[in-house]
């Protein structure tokens, strides 16, 4: 059975094989205690039996998803989590699936929900600022990748073992491909106390500005210990949100009052932007830009040590078993090509590297024995090439392309690189 550690790949496994013992998933993850339940999913703590790594596994019932009409939502959540690689966002490690369930294997946030800590009392202004800086770093990153969360709240913010913030639950998120011709999103969603006034107006809204509003609510809650807009009568609360009517606690500093007012501006056209947030004097105090390596197509660690693909591996690449065919519908910018070659993997990598050197607007980002990652000089696309040995003489070459400007990689791969590499294809 293949073990896939790469969040751009999926494994389908038989129903009988998924639970190899009373508490083991796929013979790989030892299932622990239940962490939480949702409408169609349960989240468990688990441990990778090979590495000892703690993970969280979200088990989604396909039947409940189908009955509730949430198929597209689940697909989109996986697509979105595949796009995001940021230290303040919960990482999707892999996806397993059976006929009845889909399993999200995710990074485990040992510190639990931020909401639990807030419930014990408000934070100091310095601690509030620290968490808000991490939140904005992650939200700004999401927006740069064309992702809008749309349900930011303390319950969807987790803490790791070092009490650093991690955004989770992208089930209500939107991607830029959903934006209508008017440049706006129109789906009504979110949590009442955190919803932006423009969503209440039902006239369309900018996903980035909605997230900024929710960040403003979170900032207020961290600092004050309670919500700025709260009333048992939902219509009264919505009226206050729409008008932007709230009060500050007496301990709020002048700079923080001014900053929160810019975040909770009921007019989205004049509301502060993420770029303006980062340059605000209150926000900038002690701020250090978060450095990280954003790897769009991570190397498949498990496949690196495997000599040849087995029968299951080969079947899983076919359209009938490859779950990426099912889940990639919401992300047309990802495209895959595969071919068989009798050239040695190192020679294939060498040929690709040589041709890249002769081609403009593309560079080698990273390489290994059986894999190479290419990217545009301005970061507008990524091309991932993975080589899977079949026998001593044959290998399957898988090429994945992701664009951040639509169609850019087509010109590089199809028009410039592929014509120079087509002789690598096994023709017998």
From TrEMBL:
Cofactor(s) it depends on: Mn(2+)
CDD domains reported in the protein's UniProt record: CIPK_C
Residues holding ATP: 58
Entry's EC annotation: 2.7.11.1
SUPFAM superfamilies the UniProt entry points to: Protein kinase-like (PK-like) (SSF56112)
SMART domains, per database record: S_TKc (SM00220)
Identification of the protein by name: non-specific serine/threonine protein kinase
